[in-house]
Amino acid sequence: MAAALRIEKVRLDRRDGVAKVVGTLACVAGASVITLYKGPTIFGPEASLGLEVGAGGEKNWTLGCVYLIGHCLSWSGWLVLQAPVLKKYPARLSVTSYTCFFGVIQFLIIAAFMERDADAWKFHSGSEIFTILYAGFIASGVAFAVQIWCIDRGGPVFVAVYQPVQTLVVAIMASLTLGEKFYLGGIIGAVLIIAGLYLVLWGKSEERARLARDRDAAAVMPPDAAVIRSSKLQAPPSSTTQPLLLPSSTENV
């Protein structure tokens, strides 16, 4: 999306452009391996909370996949659109406040139609209150503010390339806190994510270094060169169009 909207430039004829493309594909491949491939168990805690994915009965996995694809497209569009918004409205904290405010309004409208049971809105434990407060202050407020700041400084691709790291962190934390098993696919995916992240960051660094060298070269250009260039542009017509000899006086007789 960033390349299509001319926000991010990708030059496949240079090393930095190839590194960004290959690194992005490696990060996506690593996240896909962690999600889809398990392999042998590397770490399996003895204590488990007994949470199983299929414990909730029959689920519509096709509809869930469609929702997840829509989430990815919406999230990608949100990241990309932040760059032009911040150029015209550079108040990052205000953008975060507006994002959270309109998000709350949207969720309230959807929840009013989807969940009409009054018991579902009651708190049954302190952990539920902590989860809601953490999601509101940290996962939404602080995370959005930091993310918008990073988009303003590094661009949407720089922020999006860190998203596969979230899959790796979730797999590790689920193994340590919820007692889920950590498989070989997690190790392979982690290697791909780290390698892809390094390639993208290296490509961005090379691109910025090249732009800095071009600006320095343009700044140190001697003023005589600019004068010579402008004089060439404003050169008088050639002698082939204007004769060197003036017309003789006999022609006027």
Automatic annotation (TrEMBL):
Any one Gene Ontology molecular-function term assigned to this protein's record: transmembrane transporter activity
Which segments show compositional bias classed as Low complexity?
236-253
The membrane topology of this protein is: Multi-pass membrane protein
Spans annotated as Disordered: 228-253
Every EamA domain range: 63-201
Instruction: Tell me the superkingdom of the source.
Output: Eukaryota
* Sorted UniProt keywords: Membrane, Transmembrane, Transmembrane helix
Chief place where the protein resides = membrane
- Read off the InterPro entries from this record: EamA_dom (IPR000620), EmrE-like (IPR037185), WAT1-related (IPR030184)
Q: Which GO terms describe its cellular component?
A: membrane
Tell me the compartments it is located in.
Membrane
Instruction: Answer whether the UniProt record assigns the keyword DNA damage to this protein.
Output: no
Give the residue spans that cross the bilayer. Answer: 21-40, 60-81, 93-114, 129-150, 157-176, 182-203
Q: Which Pfam families match?
A: EamA (PF00892)
Q: What is this protein called?
A: WAT1-related protein
The beginning of the lineage is: Eukaryota, Viridiplantae, Streptophyta, Embryophyta, Tracheophyta
